[in-house]
Amino acid sequence: MRVVPILIVILSSLFLVNCARSPEALTQRRIARVEQGLLSDYSDPPWKRMELLERMQHYRVPGVTIAVITEFQIEWIKGYGVLEAGSSEPVTPETLFQTASLAKPIVAVAALHHVERGSLELDQDVNQSLISWHIPETKYTAEEEVTLRRLLSHSAGVTVEGFRGYALGEDVPGLRQILDGEWPANSPPIRVDIVPGTQHRYSGGGYMIVQQLLEDVVGEPFQGIMQNTVLEPWGMTASTFESPLPEHLSEIAASGHRADGSVIPGGWHTYPEMGSGASMWTTSSDLAQFVIRVMQSYTGQSDGVLSHDMAIQMLTPQIDNRGLGPLVYDDGINLFYFMHPGANDGFTSVMVAYPLSGQGVIIMTNSDNGNALWREILNSVSIEYGWVKDYTSLYVSTAIVIGFVLLGILVLRRTRVRGRSEE
Predict the structure, then answer these.
(1) Contact at 8 Å (CB) between 236 and 207?
(2) Strand, helix or coil for residue 197
(3) Dihedral of CA 50/55/59/63: which sign?
(4) Under CATH, what is the fold of the domain 94-255+265-338?
(5) Neighbours of 410 (CB within 10 A)
(6) Cβ burial, residue 38 (10 Å; 0-12/13-18/19+)
(7) What are the extents of the domains in the chain?
(8) With 70 as the cut, is the pLDDT of residue 413 above it?
(9) DSSP 89
């Protein structure tokens, strides 16, 4: 009888259909579309989609990791390229990258946790809590106080935007030397030269004051505070603020690359400026865990590190688009997300998250050119997951409208010419 073979064919077809519809298959298709759908703000034509590996080669970016979050869970993580140009060691989800300033929101969570414990005050002059060092008084601090809220939102009037790090073999300063700009620090003194609270000015120096504040109040080294307050409770087991990077972790760390594709001598610079986030090494997986926990805290699923109320404060713009740590964009209608980029010598990264829907993405690269690349990747991810309007549809729709307008003008001109000839 032919019934059995026919039944087998039907069941096999149903199995294949179900496999095609499975979450795993859907994710694989999404990954493929993301990889093939990079979109530049400067594409010609503007809707031209490009492939990830080709763009990595174009920008001379040896390695990238991408982690995508949907519904408060990691949907997928993938590594691309190599740890170092010319090597065969692949980038994997376990590869460590320097986060640079992307870690500032992580430092902010630690500070806000200690506010909730009563160890710190958000709106009190931090000089009242500092012990081993104090912010020098100036005519600007005489008008307004430097508070933790203002430090976290870059509105305390503090100098020193960022730090360039220390090459292999260079003398490395301690915290006090960094704060006062004393040798061997290669950055100027951290001071207040704008009236606090009057304007936004990005300041890595302000976060160095936060580091000193936490060390004085908690009574522990900064890396230990971060480990006990945020990293361990939130499952960020691969992350560290230790500087320099411990030798046993160097084997899984990506090397940084300059814009011309050359490797940073020694692989990377050392950043003793832990409070600014510059010293942190982590994986895209760990950063995804951090983003998920912040979003959960914001939506009322707090686990004790960051309360719902404090998460709301953290993700509320204080001045311009600055929250307490991250950049926050909220149009009050349907667009609400937080983000933060990061850039050390040879490394660039970004995280973007939509708390209300539990979606987000982390992109980490080992190149100074990574900023241009992560923007194109972000465009692709955003379109695939519907976070923004599909640029292709927008451009095509615009082209169609323009086409009809031009056609109408052409028809109108021909009608006029015909009318004149008939006269």
Answers:
(1) no
(2) coil
(3) positive
(4) Beta-lactamase (3.40.710)
(5) 10
(6) buried
(7) 94-255+265-338
(8) no
(9) P
